[in-house]
Structure formats: C-alpha cells, structure tokens
C-alpha cells in the first residue's frame, strides 16, 4: 500500500493523463466531424452552383398580333428585334392557335382542346363564376414539380372568381399582372359594363396599388420581367411566362413611338404600328437582360400571338382570310418562332404542323418533367420537328366545336350527309385538308391598302365574299390554297364525309360546356373597387352543383332533341343545352 500522500499524487497524475487522453480523442473526433461537415458544405455549394441541365424556358405571349404585323412577313411596321430573333432561330410558318384569348391560353396551360376542358364557347368573362377547371394540371405546375422556379408577368384571362383560380394557385411562384382580357394601359382600370368598373393590376393575389406608377403596361411588364431575372440564380432553371397586354385594344401608346409612323394615314393602323414597335423594343430589352444575367446560353424562348389580328383595331392578317374571332386562317394562323442556342438547326423555317397545345408536352419534356398517361393530352412533343426539321407527329387539329355559337340558318343534317348538323360551328384540319361548318365568322380578305383615311366600316376595296352566303360547309386544301379562295366541298364530297365522321368522333369525347351566367357579386364595388375573387372556398359544393345543373340541362335538351334518321331515332349529343 502507498502512503496516503503518494496515493493522492498518483491519482492526480493519472487523472491528468486520462484527461489529456480523452481531450485528444475528442479533438480528433471533432476534427474529423468538422472536416466532414466542411467537405459536405463544399459539395452542397458546388451542387447549388452547378449549372442545371434543364434549359430556362421563356414564353412570350402577345395579344392580337396579326399574321402580317411583323417585319419578316412583309409588314410596314418596323420590328428589327423580332426579325432578328426569328431569323437566327426557327420561324414557325404552319403554326396554329385559337381565334380568341381565353381559348388559346387555356390550351397552352393544359395541352388540351377546349372540348376537353369545357371552355368551348367564347372567352371567360370577368363577371362569370368560371375559370380554367381546377382538375387540370397546368404547365407551370408540371415544371415546378421538375424543379423550376415559375413566374408569370402580364395577362392571365383564365378566370379568377375564387382564389383557387388565381395564377399563384395554378403553379406560379409569383404573379404580377392583370386578370381580365383588356383594360387601360396606364390606369389599369376596366369597365365590363356600365356600373361594373374596377382596378385590375395584381401582385400575387392582392391589388398592386403600391407597385403602380402609372407606367404604360408594355414597359411596366418588361421592367418586372427584368427584375425577376435579376433576382434569380441563372444556374437554377426558371420558367418565365411573359404575357403582354399589347397589342390588344384600347389603342394606346407613348407619343414617341407614333412619330415613326406619320406616313400611315389611318389613325387606328398608325397607333397599332406604334404599339408593335414598343413591343419590339421590349423584346430587345428582354433579350439583352437574358444575356446580361447569364440565361441566354441555356435558354429556349418561344414567341407566340394568341390569335389573329383585328382589322377594326388596326391589325392585319393579309394575305390570309378572316380575322380574330373567326376560324378562317386569319383568325387562327399565328406569328410564332423559337429562338435558342440549343436548337440543332437554326436560321430555318419550320413548316411542320404545330398547334398551341403542343407547347405543354414539348416544354415539360424539354424541362425533364414527367407526363402522366391519364392526362389525355391533345398536344404532341414537337421539339424534334422544330430543332431538327423532322416531320411533325401531329396529323390533325381540332380547331373547335362550339355548340352555343349562333347556328347557321341553312345548316342541316342533310347538308352534313346525315353525319353532322352543319348548323353547328366547327372547324377541323386533317393533313392538307380543312373543313368548316356552321358560321365560321367574318370572312373577307383585308388587303393593306384598306388602311387609308376612309373609315374601316366603309371599305370599298375589300374583297367581299358573296357567293358563299347560305352555305354551311366548306372544304379547302390549305397546303395548296392557304388563302382559302377555292371551296372544294362540292368537288370532293367523299373527303367532306370522312372529315365529318372525324368531327363526330371528337364530339363524342366532349365534356359539358362551362359558360355560366353573370354573377352580380363580381362587381368590383363590393371588393374595394378591385376586380378579384368573390367566391369563397366554402362555395365548392355550390360550384359542383352548378356544374351538375349545366350537365343535367344538356342531357335534358339532348333527350328532347331526338332526331329522326330514317326509321330510327338517334339522340343528338348536346352540351350546354345548346342543340337546335
């Protein structure tokens, strides 16, 4: 046994040595853990900074730009930026949209025809309790699931009667713009009818009073788009949907742009041309920003008009027939191009058949997203057709079947060979052939010289069509006759019958139409003077009962309208209670 003092000293020494040993182990362990943490942090930082293989997607939707209203289509309007972007990219010269705002936007957002979303008729009115059906998965939702940051600037026009319909509820991380189809370019006010007026500029889901500087909307939306690009990391994928209000009426533009077009005598055309020039300048600023902030080299830009031009508001679709709101080529064949360093073949014209529904599967696939089999898309992935010049996978386009639109007085089942009631407005493209039934809409050709000092209502030099009055079915070979001058319906009845059968097949897949009556609760005076949602989420059961009522009315009308066909009664497919 050690003496007591020696024992204590010994224990002290052992304690010190043990402490040093434990500290050494702890220090070594901490050092290893710290090194691992530092290494993991570096790896994470490298992952964040590593450029994504997914391309940035910039989609530009312009409003009411006519087929001829771009420099490279022979216009007197100066569009140097659009001409350069198209010339160094791929011009889409067989590209189709819908004849009105909401229909084109709904098909872009869903990749589905109007007959499959219930939006067959007209546009979504600001006073209607209606919007893009919530069961449809939108393009921004798909891209967001694939890792994209999603932003929208500009015109929505897909309904807003409840918050679930708003852009930020349909896949966009941010939204700045208008909910309605049109409005004042400076004050952002819109009157739908006397006593139904309100403010329409929104940031997210609220009125953007504080952000409103009274700036012309084309410039304001461009500035906002540039701020989105400036604040985002270009090494992460972004989807920017920039939907300009221009060049939709009202015809408003800063005076400095008007000075360029003093030689145009017609006031509407002069203002319209100035608005297009302002739009072209906006595209220049956007392109420079994409380069400045590091997006350009890994970017796909798509430019598209939502429908044809409106001659009464200065637009021109020459040499195409018809105008906005019609199913003639002037209403549905659009200005469009793709600009991207990622294109395999640049500086080309793409004549493959392409429709606005095709952007959904094309962009989702390009963005490395997934397409679900149960989505029943009507669009096709056309990237190889655009980028490599391959044939289009698309063979036909259902332009629409509208069971509510005014019926053709001379339309009948007899004129449709017992296959189709030609009183119903419908339009179909199959290969080279295009079929129209019912009332296709305003059908004149409006040549450039129309825009003289004369009032447009008194156009004496329009090419008026008189020989087709009383008709309810037309057939054209669009490849050989893109201007729809030679109706071949009587020469080729077998082709007419074949296409009517195709229309019938499509109509069997149509869902009930959504076109509810005006809801006076939508009046902005009940919402602080702002156009915005007026239904609450608690109204869901009411909405569902309304939809059931619409379907029920359609079914009742269908039963009532049994058609006698030989000795056999055949029910007519009737949606929205619109059969006649």
Describe the protein in words.
- Belongs to the sulfatase family.
- This is Sulfatase N-terminal domain-containing protein.
- The termini are far apart.
- The protein is built from twelve helices and 20 strands.
- The N terminus and C terminus are likely disordered.
- The protein has 580 residues and is α/β, with parallel strands linked by helices.
- Helices cover 29% and strands 16% of the residues.
- The strands form five sheets. The protein has a ten-stranded mixed sheet with strand order 9-8-5-4-10-1-11-12-2-13, sandwiched between helices.
The largest pleated sheet is described as: 10 strands, mixed
Summed over residues and divided by their number, the pLDDT gives a mean of 87
Spatial strand order of the main sheet: 9-8-5-4-10-1-11-12-2-13
Unreliable residue runs? 1-14, 16-34, 456-461, 548-580
Annotation, overall tally of beta strands: 20
Radius of gyration: 30 Å
Transmembrane segments: 12-33
Family: Belongs to the sulfatase family.
Biased composition (Basic residues): 557-566
Organism: Electrophorus electricus (Electric eel)
Summarize the structure.
The protein has 580 residues and is α/β, with parallel strands linked by helices. Helix content is 29%, strand content 16%. The strands form five sheets. A ten-stranded mixed beta sheet has the order 9-8-5-4-10-1-11-12-2-13, with helices on both faces. The chain has a four-stranded antiparallel beta sheet with strand order 15-16-17-18, covered by helices on one side. Strands 3-14 form a two-stranded parallel sheet.
